[in-house]
From TrEMBL:
Residues 144-277 form the GST C-terminal domain. Residues 278-310 are annotated as: Disordered. Belongs to the GST superfamily. It comes from Pseudozyma hubeiensis (strain SY62). This is Glutathione S-transferase. PROSITE patterns: GST_CTER, GST_NTER. InterPro entries: Glutathione-S-Trfase_C-like, Glutathione-S-Trfase_C_sf, Glutathione_S-Trfase_N, GST_C, Thioredoxin-like_sf. Residues 1-95 form the GST N-terminal domain.
Length: 310
């Protein structure tokens, strides 16, 4: 087997794919991949050689030299979800990170997938619509029939909701500030609030569960791999610690504990920003504990005063 070629940069979209490649490698030691770091500050993703593989000129992109059915050099895949579905089909044949197509109820699942998949696009296209996504998703999340469609639902939610919205929140906060005269407060607030709303959807989806999809507490799947890197970077988009619920935070830690995830996060290189985010998280946790201790001391003082009064 030849190594799959990965073209990436240290961003959440890139990390989705490097995490999946590391997970596949952990399953199958004969599987290999090679990384090509793309320097986005030099716009390498817009160079001709790159556009031949990915006409959209964005990372991540893979080229699979083991698949020469349509091109002797290999099969190029763009778009993180398409890449992950491709990798899953080709290199996770035991469906460790997904569910089998041979399920007799598969056609129903696919139909449900289509119903829900189209829906989130409405809200990214039309900002005047306030979407009842939790209500739409609830019957599917609760149904025991949906274990193979729910990964796609969550994947669509990620691709059409969390990724674009948090990406815009991030853009307005981190990149648009340089052109401050053009910054529109409405835009900043719009994307921030929408991202916070999406985190509440994620929080509800994780209620009583360890992973997004599957029976019982769920099974770690590509839906988690796809959603996790963005969730990990929430601070980068200006989402505050207290705007993210406890289920999401616990899920982030659970996934981050996986060795393949740790390796995948360091592709193409160790991120200084991620280290800074970690430091901020540690400081916040410390401050939260201090505040909790102070509240406990205040409660104790109150009890003491109550005793003295009696
Ligand atoms: N929907 C795409 C988004 C890819 C994307 O936005 N990539 C960004 C980095 S995270 C990029 O390549 N930006 C450079 C550019 O737009 O030129 C996916 O999921 O793969």
């Amino acid at each position: 087997m030849k190594p799959v070629q990965l073209y990436t940069a240290g961003t959440p979209n890139g990390q989705k794919v490097s995490i999946m490649l590391e997970e596949i490698k952990a399953l199958n030691p004969s599987f290999e991949y090679e990384t090509h770091a793309i320097d986005m500050s030099k716009n390498q993703q817009k160079e001709d050689w790159f556009l031949k593989m990915n006409p959209n000129g964005r990372i991540p992109t893979i080229l699979d030299p083991n698949n020469t059915a349509t091109d002797a050099e290999g099969f190029p895949v763009m778009e993180s979800l398409a890449i992950m579905l491709y990798l899953e089909k080709k290199y996770d044949d035991k469906h460790v990170f997904s569910w089998s197509d041979s399920d007799p109820k598969g056609e129903n699942y696919r139909n449900q997938v289509l119903q829900v998949t189209i829906f989130p696009h409405i809200h990214s296209a039309n900002h005047s619509i306030s979407t009842p996504v939790p209500r739409m998703l609830t019957p599917f999340l609760l149904s025991p029939l949906t274990s193979s469609s729910t990964p796609l639902q969550w994947c669509s939610w990620q691709m059409a909701g969390q990724g674009p919205m948090q990406g815009q929140a991030n853009h307005f906060r981190m990149q648009a500030v340089g052109d401050s005269k053009n910054v529109v407060p409405y835009g900043i607030k719009r994307y921030h609030d929408e991202t916070v709303r999406l985190y509440s959807v994620l929080e509800a989806g994780l209620e009583g569960r360890e992973y997004l999809v599957g029976d019982g507490k769920g099974k770690y799947s590509l839906a988690d791999m796809l959603t996790f890197p963005w969730a990990l970077w929430y601070r980068f988009a200006g989402i505050k610690h207290e705007e993210v619920g406890p289920n999401v935070k616990a899920w982030i830690e659970r996934i981050r504990a996986r060795p393949a995830v740790q390796k995948g996060l360091e592709v193409p290189s160790k991120s200084e920003l991620l280290k800074k985010l970690d430091d901020v998280s540690r400081q916040t946790r410390r401050r939260e504990k201090e505040r909790e201790r102070e509240r406990e001391r205040e409660r104790e003082r109150e009890r003491e005063r109550e005793r003295e009064r009696r």
